From TrEMBL:
Name assigned to this protein: Hydrolase
Keywords attached to this entry: Hydrolase, Signal
Signal peptide residue numbers: 1-20
Listed GO MF terms: hydrolase activity
Record's keyword annotation contains Ribonucleoprotein: no
Domain DUF5916: 233-809
Superkingdom as given in the UniProt entry: Bacteria
Gene3D superfamilies, sorted: 2.60.40.1190
A Pfam family this chain is assigned to: DUF5916
Lineage: Bacteria, Pseudomonadati, Bacteroidota, Flavobacteriia, Flavobacteriales
Amino acid sequence: MHPKNLLFLLLSFISFFVFSQNKPSVRKTYTATKITKAPEIDGILNDKAWMDVPEAKNFVMVEPGDGDPIPPSHDTSVKIVYNDEAVFVAATLKEPHPERVLRQLTQRDNLNQAEFFLMDINTYDDGENQTRFIVTAAGTQADARITGNHEDFSYNLVWRSAVSQDENGWNVEMKIPYSALRFPKKEIQRWGIQLYREITHLNENYVWNYVDKSVGKLSQYNGLLKGIRNIDPPVRLSFYPYTSSELDFYKGKTQYNFSAGMDLKYGINESFTLDLTLVPDFGQTAYDKVELNLGPFEQIYDENRAFFTEGTELFNKGHLFYSRRVGSAPIGFNDAQKELLENEEIVENPDKTNLLNALKISGRTDRGLGIGFFNAVTQKAEAVFRDTLTGNLRRLTTEPLANYNIVVLDQRFNQNSSISLINTNVTRNGNFRDGNVTGFLFDIYNKSNSFNFEGDAKVSNLILPDQDLTGFASDFSIKRTKGNFRYRVSHEFANGTYNINDLGVNRVNNYSNFFGRTSYQIFEPRGIYNEYRIELFGRHRRRYRPNITQKTSVGGNFFAKTRTRFAFGGSFEIDSKSRDFFETRTEDQYVLYQPNGEINAWISSDYRKKFAYDLRVKYQKFNESPQSDLWFKIKPRFRVSKNFNLTYSFEFSKEQNRPSYVTKAEDAIVFGNRDQVSLENSIHANYNFNPKQGLNLSFRNFWATATYANGAYTSLQDHGMLSPYNFIFTNDTNPNTNFNIWNLDLSYRWRFAPGSEAVLLYRNSIFNQDSLSYLNYEESLNNLFEEPIRQNLSLRIVYYIDYNRIRSLFNS
């Protein structure tokens, strides 16, 4: 489909469906009561503030059933009051057998197997964007930003809560200050709310306002909170100053570093917030799960820096923002080796750029318009060369001063639909590459929420010293979103110059793909099943230019969960012959892979038990070829006590006889038959003294070998075929690889005040990569321990300062 025709079709669908929705018809209402004296937040509901206040009651089941009333034995009631500072919530959760309530101690935002009470607040009542506040039966807090069905638990707010237990069950008390919320500056507030209780030991969940799971999203079924009036949004200004001390031991040398900086949050008005980080410190972020990567694409890592994970839902629109680009390796990092002159050596070549500062402004007006602005600046990076004869130093700029920007406009309407415009831009100082990408996105539901029309159109501009490249990509899908039977058809397109990799990630371009899927699922228990889903799909991948087939696939998958919370499932996929244009590392050249079939299965036991496990296995076999792939993973978990939890993971994979790229010779693109074996052991353990103090252990060892069959080298021919080739490698060109990496983190975390914490972290790491692929695991591990170990000890303290509290102290 031509891009112009596709864009016209998208706009036609939007114009037809944009005004054809309405809200869910069934909705409860609760009227909050204003108080003069705030209750003490201790979990004991005997304060005067709770007397003669109406109750939100009559909860109904949302899982596993559909709308069944909560039994009287587990009656749940909630009261909501407010004053000029905050909203207060009291919840009474009855339980005839209090000893059965699961009260596992965890740290913030980790629910694990503790039962909990939840309140969602949508201050704009738009059916989409809301804030979630959770308190577990053990007293742990969790909060998240909810966008549709996505929970962002990196979104942290400062609020208070407490729990208590008695012979009738347990109670929750919450204080949510207005500084933790964004709401319109109006005399009368109308907020969407949902109240939710999970009774883990019964495997039952209940909500206050009924949710029809077969239609739409959970956020569309909020009740209405009325009665809050004449409140003024406070000055939302808070400071998070930090200090960080670090000792690093490596190769007999000790380094000491001290740094200090600050994060700042400022409410520009009642809707928009500025987040700013000055002299950022990311020294205690979790380690990356590095693996042996012999493929044509870069390895993508999770974002572990809080500033780039908290409140970024607007900036992630269209999947154009990969935050690890900010502060990543300089764009000229790999070119430093090529720039070596005769008799020179590399003294220094930084593998990352330093972030100088970053800010983001985001919010949403009372008419549903979301606006986001992101900016970050990274420092210049240089490689340093030394002449081994004269000792003279020479510098090469591998990354200049760089500026990263994102601007987003997101208009929400009719509870569950949106139209968005996003622009990302990277500008580098000097004669380097710049990147600019603009995307238009839509997500539209019809009146009955039975169909969804979703898609985007994106234009990329890559600005190079000698030329500019403009690319285009689009995506369009129609989905049936109501009832037991559902289906989806979609089309994806990108031309050969589409490139968003300066601030985003696209691994492939030059494609025109088609996809179809149909499924059947249940929303109420049937027989032994609480839920199950069956799905069949088909996918056809084509090269845009030249217009040829890359691969056609058909398959299906199955998921089921029993009444006893035992889950299992699996999938299968059958692929035709495939043309791989990327393994060759050469433009418009492809290698041909044979048809293959893949099957995988998994089981997951009941996490409520002290011992539980997950088991997954996958096997892939190619027709008329010895190529195969086996993958296996087992993950047992032990809840030793309510304080101590331990999870172990073992993962193994074995790939045999895969025709793989080796190198480029003068007269050939060389391939070889590769066997690759990998093994990963990891442990995650935590011991929590209480919800505010705990020890955490995280360990990972990943080992992999890649061995190419002797005398089985080939050269790439026309039409993707391979023919024998006499390739003789040297020590420098030996493709065989032995890869081993070890990481261990042990930390003590203490949240000593609301919003404030101290973290003491010890970590060590070892890495080794060589060509000794014939070594077994034990031998490779012995070699690994002969490498120098890096040990690091750091202490980081962050203190939360609220401007309103300081002002009150001075006034008093």
